[in-house]
Specification:
The chain is mainly beta. The chain is built from no helices and 11 strands. The protein is 0% helix and 48% strand.
Length: 123
């Protein structure tokens, strides 16, 4: 089981980025994105059900970020719009265990983790 996140980079405030997470070894798990900024705890960003039919978002990103998935490509996306300097963080994709269908905001509920991709938003 592997998760490979990519798409991070440097962007100006107000700009957009799309993160991708390629999944290998499974295809139908609940997936989530989390982030950890400098000196901060890991924060929930978004999660999506195995079929993409259900999504939940953290309060700080709701309305600006969109999570989606393409199971044919084994990829989960995080479209980030209207970026703010406080969005600067390392972003991680994560997966819940097999046959788990409930979306969760707790990082402790996710079993598999990618390596993270850095997003830097300049003011």
């Amino acid at each position: 089981v592997q998760l490979q996140a990519s798409g991070g980079g440097l962007v100006q405030a107000g700009g957009s980025l799309r993160l991708s997470c390629v999944v290998s070894g499974f295809s139908s798990n609940v997936m989530g994105w989390f982030r950890q900024g400098p000196g901060k705890e890991r924060e929930f960003v978004a999660a999506i059900s195995w079929d993409g039919g259900s999504t939940i978002y953290g309060d700080s990103v709701r309305g600006r970020f969109t999570i989606s998935r393409d199971n044919d490509k084994s990829t989960v996306y995080l479209q980030m719009n209207s970026l703010k300097p406080e969005d600067t963080a390392v972003y991680y994709c994560a997966a819940r265990g097999e046959r788990v269908t409930v979306l969760s905001r707790s990082h402790r509920q996710y079993v598999y983790w990618g390596q993270g991709t850095l997003v830097t938003v300049s003011s």
